[in-house]
Design goal:
Elements (H helix, E strand, L loop, with lengths): L1 H13 L27 H16 L4 H12 L3 H10 L14 H14 L14 H11 L4 H16 L7 E6 L6 H12 L9 E5 H4 L6 H18 L4 E5 L6 H11 L14 E6 L3 H13 L9 H14 L7 H6 L5 E4 L5 H14 L6 H9 L3 E2 L6 E2 L6 H4 L6
Helix pairs in contact: 1-2, 6-7, 6-8, 10-11, 15-16
Bound molecules: 2-acetamido-2-deoxy-beta-D-glucopyranose.
GO cellular component, one term: nuclear envelope
GO molecular function: ATP binding; ATP hydrolysis activity
Family: Belongs to the ClpA/ClpB family. Torsin subfamily.
Amino acid sequence: GLGCCALVLLLLLGGSGSPGTSPRPRGPWPEEQGAVPEGAPWGRVRYEAVKEHLGAVGALSRRYWQYLACKVWQEGCEEEKQREDGEASPIPSWGFPLVGQDYLEILSAWYCSFGKCCETGDCRIINNITGLEADLSGQLHGQHLAKAVVLRAVQGFLQSPQPQKALVLSFHGWSGTGKNFVARMVATHLYRDGLKSDCVRVFVSLLHFPHHNYVDSYKAQLQRQISETLQGCRQPLLIFDEAEKLHSSLLDAIKPFMAQHDSEGQPHQQRSIFLFLSNLGGNTINEVALDFWRAGRAREEIPLELLEQRLRLELQEAAENSYAHSHLLRENLIDFVVPFLPLEFQHVKLCARDAFLARGLPYTEATLDKVAQMMVFVPKEEKLFSAQGCKSVPQRINYFLP
Ligand SMILES: *[C@@H]1O[C@H](CO)[C@@H](O)[C@H](O)[C@H]1NC(C)=O
């Protein structure tokens, strides 16, 4: 029980060369006796409890706690940072040389593993829906459908008390329309460390599974990596880029992880999110967008239902090009198909503006026009859609620097 955990903690720190006082045995922590009202910040209470205990051991400086609080609760980090900036080597100056960073890592990982040390129950998970919405609104251009679907899907999934299956989204559209951008945004706003989080895993078909001859070993490797990620995190995010190039047997290998959790012996609170990014259906989406434009209607009027229906039809027919999304569709594993519309001149200009702003560089309306004019627009007659979307726009602004 917790008594034993406290002991481990004391041993961990007591055995680390703390000078002076020996640990004084104590009873179980009062905070752990059910005295905490429902909904109280458990993490904080536990933090105070541990703090008191370890303070009594006399082994810890205020700074140590500051560091731990920063690590575990993301609190007091500024103070910690200032110190780091001000001193050449912060850790040796702590006075407890053996209580190093490794111990802190172990301690905070262990501490987080039994308790709700963060609001989400896992400090790696932040689930900042407000931030996601703000970024989708401010930085994703021309994608009213993708924005709405992603936000609704992710928010609904994270709020549902006991999801029966993983959330599976399939992003479709031409390259440069923002599929990767949105996947990254989701990672950034759901996880403290974004794409680098151990809860997040990105697979790029041609990078990770380039040779069809090795499909069997890829399959074993993929299954191992997915189960590791699923076991190490209760809200894992798995991103499959270039999904149209994923061998169908690899897709089959992923399927069991998306289905019912119970059969896999996963804990019930597990919330896995799968994103598949592909350019399949891109042409269909573009045809619909072009039809709307020719009919003099705004792209914002394009209804999701229309695109979703056309996309699902097309994906089923795409089975012969070894793309196996259709299996997923047949088994209803894909919850949402997310269409990314082709980008127009005005959207490319907005991407250019963001690129200038991101680098803190000045720009004029004329410069933005020039950057956008570098892109190829199709179809031949209308020259309406950027063939590469906003791809490489951040690099292209280099030509127009003062
Ligand atoms: C959520 O993200 C927004 C924008 O990135 C940020 O301003 C806000 O502080 C974040 N909220 C939390 C609780 O982290």
